[in-house]
Amino acid sequence: MIAKLALLLIVSTLLSTPLVTKQWQDSDLDGVPDLKDACAATPPNRVVDAKGCDKALLNKRGPMLSILPDLCLRTSDGKRYPAACSKLSSISVKFGFAQADILPSQEQTIEVIARWLKSTRVSIQLVGHTDSIGDASFNLQLSLKRAEQVKKVFVEQFGFAADRFQINGVGSSLPVANNQTAFGREQNRRVEFLVIVQ
């Protein structure tokens, strides 16, 4: 009887080991397991908070606030802002499949944009996108909801004036990656930022 119990215990331990290992996997080696890591691609040798995000970037009141991101964004008329910049920044807020909620992993991106907005007087158009899965009318509404959610975060959490943002949803009509792959669809589920030209 004891031998059977011991064997059962060993088998159950072996079967559950991959699950435990996966739960505590730390892909970016920052000391925070992937399942709890809100910033899953932290560069090496960075000090992170309990959510796995770079403390220097997330400390809103600390000295790092004066270090502004060097962004180069498209304008609503197809040019670049600032005009002298040469390489467009590939910055956007990503979303889960068929979801409009802001993912914890996107907090750092929103923080970067918020710090940049505090240093400028520009207004921004938030353009929501989806992947190609699903009905076109559903995707159009979903893309608009995504843009609305990003605006809500900027207004409610960062105190920006609501009239500084325009929202637009374009559904799946402007993909940046191949919708035939899971990775491509993930890249297409996004909100982009355009500087509004007055």
TrEMBL record:
Domain annotation OmpA-like: ranges: 82-198
Alphabetized PROSITE patterns for the sequence: OMPA_2
Pfam families membership: OmpA (PF00691)
GO cellular component: cell outer membrane
Keyword annotations of the record: Membrane, Signal
InterPro entries: Bact_OuterMem_StrucFunc (IPR050330), OMP_bac (IPR006664), OmpA-like (IPR006665), OmpA-like_sf (IPR036737), TSP_type-3_rpt (IPR028974)
Highest taxon, organism lineage: Bacteria
N-terminal signal peptide: 1-21
Protein name stated in the entry: OmpA/MotB domain protein
